User: What shape does this take?
Amino acid sequence: MERMDSNPTPPDEHVSDGLSSTLSPSEVDSLWREHRRWVAAVILAHMPRDADLEDLLQDVALLMVRSLHTLNDLNAIRPWLRTIAINTSRSAGRKRKVRLRMRRDVEDLDTMSGTEAGVIAAEKDREARLERGRRLMEAAQGLPPAYREPLILRAVRGMSQKQVAEVLDLPETTVETRLVRARRMVREQIEREDAMPEPRAAGSLSQAELA
Amino acid sequence: MTESMESQEDILISRVIDGRAGAEDLRQLSALAQADGAVWDRLAAADADRAALALAVEREIAVAELIEAPGADELEHEPYRFVGWTGWMGWAAAAAVVFAWTITGSGPGRSNFPPPTVQNVSLSADDALARYIEASKAEDRFIRELPKVMIESHLAADGRATEVTYLRQFVEKATVDNLYELSTDEHGRPGAVRVSSPIGSSSQLY
Assistant: This one.
């Protein structure tokens, strides 16, 4: 596993004005908009299961804006933001909020219109994909972080393997290897689950067992 | 298990579904599929899983679109702090004097602390305070800690120890743009009044 830098910010004495003095507020805003989706994915990969992604993302946004003065090189922003996201995730309290609004939007987008039969088929297909996605996500979240994070980051729309490597500060070849293994581990986990007998309801013992 | 244990088939399939497969990768995959036709099924299943996971991740992170970076105005308001030393302490002989300031550089409310780190998120309160004092000294803000003042004491819940409630105070300094005093007008209504000249020594705060 790669070494995790405990502090993304260099000591203040080595910092001049950092980026915060050269970026306008709208540029800072654009910077956040450019990175917030994959930052959310990093949080998703590291936060406790019952933490609230939205809250944590807000914390990261605040920390980013507050701490930009410690960052001198815009090229280093991905690993820098990732470290903030990981630290924020790890410090997450156990808060829970329902976050359905955006999910609903995404699901709505996912079901495009067509003929009635086509819609029904698309709906069934969507449900199957959602269920499969839920299981894959659950299995992915059970992976060791070194495999979990690249797999989830790679699933972010528009996130290339090269960008994942930049965020993780790893060679692309390492990311590729981890992706291959992560996919295999997830697949095997689901195959194991599928091979397990379904739990029976209480009182459903067979005749042989009753005898 | 070592990473070299991944099968050639897994690597090739992963490249294909990631859109990174070159001509040679596709040739090798075809060669594998000639020996085992199920390779294509596994490729299709892997690609379906990639799409399903992508959908699941997108659903989770969609909330990111709602989160905006805090605006400069939001941050600028944050450093304002009312410090109700005298009113809260009850040490003032005169009417409570409350000060507010706007910070230029370092000072209360404008932390130069780095974001939470792996180490400091799990610090004890004492360790965190020690770090605060250290950083505050480095910023030339911290002057000294005053002796603790006991407010009350009573028998602890275990019936043996004594639980003490005490006041812990630090003397700090800050460079301020504007200094306001909470005062009352001729009708007795409270309001902030800008202090036009320095008010003297710190002892007047008490």
In short: Chain A touches chain B through 69 residues (CB under 8 Å).
